[in-house]
Amino acid sequence: MKKMKKHGFTLIEMIIVIAIGFIIILLVYQTMQSTLAVSQHIREKMTDIQRTNFFLETFSSRLMSALVDSENNSFSSTSITFELNEYRIRKIVSYSTEINENGRYDLLVKEKDVFLDTEFSYPAIVDLDRVEFSFFDGESWQTNWEKESFPKGIAISIERKNSKLFFPVMLNIQSAQQS
User: Fold this and answer.
1) CB-based contact 83:67 (threshold 8 Å)
2) Residue 29: other Cβ atoms inside 10 A
3) Rounded CA gap, 25 and 31, in Å?
4) 157 burial class (0-12, 13-18, 19+ CB within 10 angstroms)?
5) Per-residue pLDDT tens for 94-120?
6) Which of 17, 155, 8 is nearest to 75 (CA)?
7) Which residues contact 129 (CB under 8 A, 6 or more apart)?
8) What value does the mean pLDDT take over residues 80-107?
9) 89: β partners
10) What's the confidence (pLDDT) of residue 179?
């Protein structure tokens, strides 16, 4: 009599297939987790870059609208204050640094409406390693500005997580007395 061959898988073959399938699923899961983590990190970086770019754009356009003869203008390495006309509203804007609970710096903006006598403040950029303003006198950049005149340029230096940014704004504005 002829022996019949059984078709099918043995228990060992099934265990091997299940183990290989489990390893493949585990590798796919880990790859997805890594991809999601990298994606989240990139989104956070992009948001941070967009926030910084928006701040720098606003900062430079406001400096261009500054009223150079105002008695409210003051400049130091940790804060600047100047008066401007923005959308037909006279404001006094201050940019200052403050140490936060993590021992890092926050760059704060304070705006005061001169006519309505209202003010508010908000953080522009947070968790910085260093923030410093510097001023151009026509020849060199200085961190202290003790002159009565408005600087020819104002720069902000920002350091965060091994990244350094020096953003100068050259001002071509003249006082009403010089016009």
Assistant:
1) yes
2) 10
3) 10
4) middle
5) 999 999 999 999 999 999 998 999 999
6) 155
7) 104, 105, 159, 160, 161
8) 93
9) 86
10) 40
